[in-house]
Amino acid sequence: MLIKNIEQRIKINKVISLSTIAFAVFIVIAGFFFAYRMIEDSRKSIYILDNGVPVLAKQTDVLLNRPVEYKAQIELFHRLFFTLAPDDTYIKDNIQKSLYLIDDSGKKEYTNLKEKGFYNQIIASSSMVSIHTDSIALNMEQKKFSFFGKQMITRKSSVITRKLITEGFFEDIIRSPNNPHGVILKNWRIINNEELSNQNKNSY
Fold first, then answer.
1. Is the domain of 123 the same as that of 33?
2. Nearest Cα to 166, choosing from 115, 106, 94?
3. How far apart are alpha carbons 32 and 68 in whole angstroms?
4. How many Å apart are CA 72 and CA 76, to the nearest integer?
């Protein structure tokens, strides 16, 4: 009888010991997990000094803002590439800025327009060229975009409005002063640039 009691006590002690060890391991793992979560949350916290007083500001997830940056980059490229004045230096400066945002497909289109005499016509006719962005569609899976807008060519006697539809791809790169969004546009091409209207200006 005494031996059975001793055996039962040994079994009970063994169960209690194993349970204690398992519980201790669980506590340690849970502690590591919560500590990791706290460190991750703390990394998303930024303190900004406001007149010497630290103010907590939460850092937003970069991935959530990325589509917005893609659209901003696409809009910026088109605005730089198609905003022109009758000034050769102004045109070259804008084109140069736009080419930092795109691969060699942008340079090919610039060379194509230059060979057709497009920029010389702008200067000779003292025209102003601007664009209006209607919408930008993104395909995040294929990393492809489509730009929809209008191109306005303002001359002394008329205003020409042309449809402007382009498409291409986008890719993440390292941010730089010339490319603050860290996005490069690739395989860009103009799909449609047909004339929509040609309105004469009233002369008094």
1. no
2. 106
3. 36
4. 6
**Hey, what are 55's tokens?**
């103010």
**CB–CB of 122/155 below 8 Å?**
no
Other C-beta atoms lying within 10 Å of the C-beta of residue 91:
20
* Cβ-contact 76, 104 below 8 angstroms: no
Count CB-CB contacts under 10 A for residue 56. Answer: 8
Nearest to 142 by CA among 123, 166, 167, 162: 167
Question: What is residue 51's three-state secondary structure?
Answer: coil
Same domain? For 43 and 84 the reply is: no
In a domain, 89, yes or no: yes
- How far apart CA 52 and CA 33 sit, in angstroms, is 35
pLDDT tens sequence across 135-192 = 999 999 999 999 999 999 998 888 999 999 999 999 999 999 999 889 999 999 999 9
Residue 26 is predicted with a pLDDT of 78
At 33 the pLDDT is 74
Contact between 185 and 195 (Cβ < 8 Å): no
List pLDDT tens digits, range 16-66: 777 778 777 778 787 777 777 776 665 555 555 445 555 555 555 555 688
The token duo for 152 is: 């306005």
pLDDT at site 18: 74
DSSP string spanning 162-195?
Answer: EEEEEEEEEEE---BTTBTT-EEEEEEEEEE--E
- Asked, for residue 60, whether it belongs to a domain, the answer is no
